[in-house]
Specification:
24% of the residues lie in helices and 37% in strands. The chain is of the alpha+beta class and 197 residues long. The chain has a nine-stranded antiparallel beta sheet. A two-stranded antiparallel sheet has the order 3-4. It has a two-stranded antiparallel ribbon with strand order 9-10. The protein is globular and about 35 Å long. The chain starts with a strand and ends with a helix.
Length: 197
């Protein structure tokens, strides 16, 4: 399975090619699995990333999405704080387990970001994020990617839609802090995302 994006405003493109890895990483509480490694093309360079762990997002005991954390294979991090802060190629890969409206998805992400940051820190970025998510409906089995671009920011991609990039490294960190920050949406994400470091 591979996902390819076109060049966008930052003249940045990535290709996510899932190798035929012998090992698939399970998600506790779900039938979803993720490959042990993926390859991203960042600025024309192929970067191999390893899965650092997985977790399940639930709401009212209903599975919403499975999620895997990926990190550049050569990057050395020891804990959740270092993983969130690392300015290296890394990714969050979500696979939807239910249909969710884009407006609802954006609201959930915004609420989680604001657990650790003030809204005034990201006025423009949240608007860009909102404009990308709100018109789209995420369907069961849709893939969502957040790709951290070192020194630049974050690229977001929903299913087969064109990607959107936010040029702010701190906002990219805010997305990782949804799961790994001091105020996160569940300690099982911290445990899951660091289980394979």
């Amino acid at each position: 399975m591979s996902h390819t994006t076109k060049r966008v405003a930052l003249i940045f493109s990535f290709t996510c090619a899932t190798a035929f890895a012998a090992q698939e990483i399970a998600v506790d509480g779900s039938d979803i699995t993720f490959p042990a490694s993926v390859t991203l093309k960042v600025g024309g360079e192929d970067v191999n990333l390893r899965c650092t762990g997985t977790a399940l997002r639930e709401k009212a005991w209903i599975n919403v999405y499975g999620i895997a954390s990926y990190l550049a294979r050569e990057a050395m991090v020891k804990n959740a704080h270092e993983l969130a802060a690392a300015d290296v190629p890394k990714a969050l890969h979500l696979i939807m387990e239910r249909k969710v409206g884009g407006k609802k998805m954006f609201s959930a992400f915004k609420e989680a970001i604001l657990l650790n940051y003030k809204e005034t820190e990201f006025t423009a970025e949240l608007k860009q994020f909102q404009d990308y998510f709100t018109p789209r409906t995420l369907k069961t089995a849709d893939h969502v990617w957040f790709i951290h671009v070192p020194g630049v920011g974050v690229s977001c991609k929903i299913a087969n839609h064109e990607p959107m990039e936010i040029k702010n490294v701190k906002f990219s960190r805010a997305i990782w802090d949804i799961y790994l920050g001091k105020q996160n949406i569940g300690e099982h994400f911290v445990k899951g995302f660091t289980s394979r470091l």
